[in-house]
Design brief:
Shape of chain A: globular
Distance between the termini of chain A: 26 Å
Strand content of chain A: under 5%
Shape of chain B: globular
Order of helices and strands of chain A: HHHHHHHHH
Number of helices of chain A: 9
Oligomer: heterodimer
Largest sheet of chain A: none
Chain lengths: 204, 561
């Protein structure tokens, strides 16, 4: 199972990115849209790691690129463009999560969301120097997805890539919905273990 | 066994609690179950870390799924491009509009403009050849060699026909206006350079002014007494004197790229009007007071005194807009003068760059004759509330940042953010029962066709035109955000006008009369809950918009009483 491409990695892409960047700096919005197309995957994936609500993820990602376009002059090229964008993404996500924390404290004290909110925020607040690590995690995840056995890969693809409901999948597999949910939970646990192992190997 | 069993149960609860791609509601955990899970999370740091890591992966996988469907990022980039267009990056726009204006100007003026140009060439010793060419008419001839001091290229030498515009002699730009006052942050843009603006600075032809931020303003005065005031995040570019048709000389021209421009234009020479161009329109004025505001997808002209001629760029007949009238020009809008606003609507949204759905709502409010002020979620801004006839709260305005200031506000409210219903006292607090968002079919069932909120409709009404499911997809449509609709279960004193098909307790259009008991307080003014959600204004049918209009009008009727 091949995952979607998240970032420009090849050298020809890097050259293309440089050209787009130069044109963008001259105010060429179409060129910047090219950069958006190149980097949207990694930005959306990064935000999704902090905020699980799909509608919020894409809206925040749009805000990230708008913010970047407005202050492109401040990008000095000290870090790769993708890392700079993820820094903006982190800031936007932090703002959102802080608002969520206040809302949940006011409206939903004692709920699961309220229990998790400070942790989500804390995780992201502590993530300042870990943007590149997050990039490596996502790359490792894509590798792990490709290594899944066909049945497991099919279930992940149905649920996440084809957006099929739990009920649909359960019907097709002749299982209960609870069993499908638990299978997906176990698959995610296995994927996490795989990602950790890959990162450990890379580190070694 | 007990510990393992306990862990299994918590994981099962967790897996039911999680939302997945396309889900619109939390899968069913009872309140007791949710409390159980929350208590376990509160007590066990290891469990919290474990489940949070799972949620992180869950979210990442869901995002990968969305990204996979848009493998090249084209759809996302297109959406971005639309939003950037709304930001009005001025420079490419200025040159594009400038080209268009010049082309249209040339077409309108026709032969007379060519003669004027020829006369100008007479004054230029180096343009003798052009004079000869014009005197002889459009015959093949060589272009002048010495206009720019450079020898003509072989290609130019060989090219027959009229001289190119480039043979116009360079000249020192004349002073077009002076800055008389500057507030906040403002810049003068001249010959591609920007410098801080200050009172007394001269603005030459071709120069422009940029104001940055809501409190910023720059006032320009022309020699004839015309005053232009640029406000907020604004760009006024390409100040120029227009060649006059009349004997009294030049008129004026400028491009309002973005922002709000208040103008008090002194009487202009006959045949030489002042022309202000925006991304959407051209306003021609001989002398009057007016305000032009360039917004994301439309230009709004408000005339305080006198008359203006307004023409949509790209074609169409001009209309005359007089005092006590305004007009909107933009894509998909019929250009017509409208009587002065019925009041001010405060539109509360979640993003500084309006979503396309919120933009549609704003335009609709304007079509209803309302002056619309947009504010971000947060405590109600006192200045904007002072003269608001109605407050409209979009679901993009997250309830968490909205604050509690709207609860007791004695101004009619129309909203489709169900997470606010309980805070405002319009429903009880239980999500999924008293209020919520769920996947709809786009249909509503009108329960009270005689009520003004029903807009004269009855029975089952298709209010949202949902997109067809993707090709090849069989069975029921997938759950998608486009299909989300808000609902509430209001108190007994609410007027329930429409409900969810097959779910009569889910009210999708309901209102409280001023003073009617709500949940915990009497309605401080009329309150209306609508079925919309973040994206649905993009998909409303004609009936859907009628229902929207009816909600606004009903709310306004309260304000007028």
């Amino acid at each position: 199972m091949s995952g979607p491409r998240l970032s420009p990695a090849a050298s020809e892409d890097a050259e293309g990115e440089l050209r787009l960047l130069e044109r963008s700096r001259r105010g060429d919005a179409a060129a910047f849209s090219g950069l958006v197309a190149l980097h949207q995957g990694r930005v959306r994936a990064y935000i999704a790691g902090a905020i699980s609500r799909g509608d919020v993820v894409d809206d925040l990602a749009q805000e990230v690129f708008l913010g970047a376009f407005r202050k492109l002059d401040s990008y000095k090229g000290d870090a790769p463009l993708g890392v700079w964008l993820l820094g903006i993404a982190r800031h936007k996500a932090l703002m959102f999560l802080r608002g969520e924390l206040r809302r949940l404290a006011r409206e939903s004290a004692g709920s699961v969301e309220a229990a998790l909110a400070p942790l989500r925020l804390g995780l992201l607040e502590g993530d300042a120097g870990e943007i590149e690590q997050r990039e490596r995690e996502i790359a490792a995840l894509q590798g792990c997805l490709e290594g899944l056995p066909p049945g497991s890969a099919g279930m992940i693809a149905d649920r996440y890539f084809n957006a099929r409901s739990i009920a649909d999948i359960a019907r097709e597999l002749g299982k209960g919905e609870g069993a499908v949910r638990m299978s997906l939970l176990r698959l995610r646990q296995a994927l996490r273990a795989c990602v950790e192992a890959r990162l450990a190997r890379e580190g070694a | 066994v007990s510990e393992r069993g306990g862990r299994d149960r918590l994981e099962a609860l967790w897996s039911r609690w999680q939302r997945g791609p396309g889900d619109d509601e939390r899968p069913g955990l009872s309140r007791a179950e949710e409390h159980e899970l929350a208590a376990a999370l509160a007590a066990d740091a290891g469990l919290r870390a474990e489940l949070l890591a799972d949620e992180r992966l869950h979210g990442t996988l869901a995002a990968l799924g969305r990204i996979r469907q848009d493998a090249d990022g084209e759809a996302f980039a297109r959406q971005f491009a639309k939003r950037v267009a709304a930001e009005r990056n001025p420079e490419p726009f200025v040159s594009a509009v400038d080209r268009r204006v010049r082309a249209e100007e040339a077409a309108r003026r026709g032969a007379r403009a060519r003669v004027s140009r020829a006369l100008a060439f007479v004054l230029l010793p180096a343009a003798g050849f052009a004079l000869a060419w014009l005197a002889r008419g459009p015959q093949p001839a060589s272009p002048p060699a010495a206009v720019s001091g450079a020898a003509p290229s072989p290609r130019a030498r060989a090219a027959p026909g009229p001289p190119a515009v480039a043979v116009r002699a360079p000249r020192v730009p004349a002073v077009a206006a002076r800055l008389t006052a500057v507030a906040g942050s403002a810049l003068v843009i001249e010959q591609a350079r920007r410098q801080p603006a200050g009172a007394g600075m001269r603005l030459h032809e071709g120069a422009g002014v940029m104001t940055v931020g809501p409190g910023s303003a720059a006032t320009l005065a022309f020699a004839d007494g015309t005053v232009l005031e640029l406000e907020g995040d604004g760009v006024l570019a390409q100040l120029a004197e227009l060649p006059g048709d009349g004997p009294a000389g030049a008129g004026k021209a400028a491009l309002l790229v973005r922002g709000r421009l208040r103008a008090n234009v002194a009487p202009q020479p006959p045949g030489s009007p002042a022309v202000i161009t925006t991304p959407h329109a051209e306003a021609t004025v001989l002398g009057t007071r007016f305000t032009l505001a360039v917004e994301a997808r439309a230009t709004r002209l408000d005339v305080q005194e006198g008359k203006l001629r307004l023409r949509k760029l790209g074609g169409g007949d001009p209309v005359t807009v007089g005092g006590a009238e305004y007009a909107l020009v933009g894509e998909g809008l019929d250009l017509a003068p409208v009587a002065k606003p019925r009041g001010t609507a405060l539109l509360v949204v979640g993003y500084s760059s309006l979503t396309s759905a919120d933009e549609r709502v704003k335009r609709r409010l304007e079509r209803l004759g309302l002056e619309v002020r947009v504010t971000l979620a947060g405590p109600p801004p006192p200045d904007d509330l002072r003269d608001a006839a109605v407050v409209v709260i979009s679901s993009t305005a997250s309830a968490d940042t909205l604050g509690i200031g709207y609860r007791e506000l004695a101004v009619p409210l129309v909203l489709w953010e169900p997470n606010l219903y309980d805070e405002l006292g319009m429903t009880g607090p239980e999500r999924g029962a008293d209020l919520g968002v769920a996947t709809g079919t786009g249909e509503l069932v009108i329960k009270d066709p005689a009520h003004a909120l029903a807009a004269g409709l009855g029975g089952s009404v298709a209010a949202v035109a949902l997109p067809p499911p993707p090709a090849g997809e069989a069975g029921p449509p997938r759950r998608q955000p486009d299909r989300w609709m808000s609902y509430g279960q209001p108190g007994a004193h609410a007027q329930v006008v429409a409900t969810w098909p097959g779910r009569p307790t889910r009210a999708v259009i309901f209102g409280y009369e001023r003073g009617a008991p709500m949940v915990g307080l009497p309605a401080p003014a009329r309150r209306v809950g609508l079925y919309l959600h973040n994206r649905s204004p993009n998909l409303l049918t004609e009936a859907g918009w009628r229902l929207f209009d009816a909600a606004i009008v009903w709310a306004l009727d309260d304000a007028r009483r």
